[in-house]
Design a protein that fits this description.
Length: 287
């Protein structure tokens, strides 16, 4: 793989985050129109955050492509780089957590992609994507036990760690260790089926609502508890199943957004997964 391919992977990951924040209207989330349920971040802060992460995206891919040891040691390298990336992100956003979950996921996905491209080439097929997600599952299989085994001894807990203690929710770690089933079994099959039928924005907005209607979203659980999450999920089911045209769909999203702003709820987990789905859509040339 040439340096140009590493640059291409970096562009795909960076563009995925740009596409996600630019999608509008989104329920409870930062977009071009408003800040959703977020009082401490806006569209321009997301741009600053993405720019701070882009050099690290290149490094994740390079670490994978140049790796010649086992997957556990690759994960250690990626996590070390990920800590640097998170530091740069927080510096760019004045300590606001804009992309912590997405940064983790792109670290393991870009690392796995780089490793895979030692013996394969772009564009990807469905099978190539499946193989990448399998690599990620193998690379992170130890993660939940490693990160949560001594959690009660920690003085300061992240939102994800608090949710694990309270409800056993595994969050992004759980997705990674299972090879991102929300992508492989839900979002990507939807994109592959619908990509030629919709504009890019409508395809991605419908994909977001599909995720909201199905996944366990740790951001919603953190902000609204199980009841808040279930309410948002059921609202998503209704919008997804109603077969709305573009105008009706966007009108529903606008109303949904106002409801979530009033309740201070944000489906940030779904937004992160959407950006990962966009990344694979670039790799597979779906969009």
């Amino acid at each position: 793989m040439s340096n140009s391919t590493l640059i291409q992977l970096t562009k795909f990951a960076t563009k995925s985050l740009y596409y996600e924040v630019a999608l509008s209207p989104k329920p409870g989330l930062v977009d071009r129109f408003d800040n959703g349920a977020h009082k401490d971040m806006d569209f321009f802060m997301f741009i600053d955050s993405i720019e701070s992460l882009a050099p690290h995206f290149y490094e994740y891919a390079r670490l994978g492509f140049t790796h010649n040891d086992d997957l556990a040691s690759l994960f250690s390298k990626l996590r070390e780089e990920g800590i640097k990336a998170e530091h740069d992100m927080l510096e760019a956003t004045y300590q606001v957590n804009t992309h912590k979950g997405a940064n983790f996921s792109f670290a393991v996905l870009l690392g796995a992609t780089g490793l895979y491209l030692q013996n394969h080439s772009l564009p990807f097929s469905f099978q190539d994507t499946t193989n990448i997600l399998s690599l990620v599952a193998q690379m992170t299989h130890h993660l939940v036990e490693q990160d949560f085994s001594h959690i009660t001894e920690k003085n300061k807990l992240s939102h994800g760690e608090k949710l694990y203690i309270k409800a056993g929710t595994l969050g992004v770690r759980g997705e990674a260790t299972q090879g991102y089933p929300a992508l492989s079994s839900l979002l990507l099959p939807f994109f592959r089926k619908r990509a030629e039928q919709e504009s890019t924005e409508m395809l991605l907005l419908r994909g977001l609502i599909l995720l909201i209607s199905q996944i366990e979203d740790s951001n919603l659980l953190h902000r609204g508890g199980a009841n808040g999450w279930q309410q948002v999920k059921q609202r998503g089911v209704g919008i997804h199943q109603n077969k709305l045209n573009e105008l009706e769909f966007k009108q529903n999203l606008t109303t949904f957004n106002q409801e979530l702003i009033e309740k201070n709820l944000s489906p940030g987990g779904a937004a992160d997964l959407l950006s990962l789905g966009i990344y694979f859509s670039f790799l597979e040339k779906l969009i």
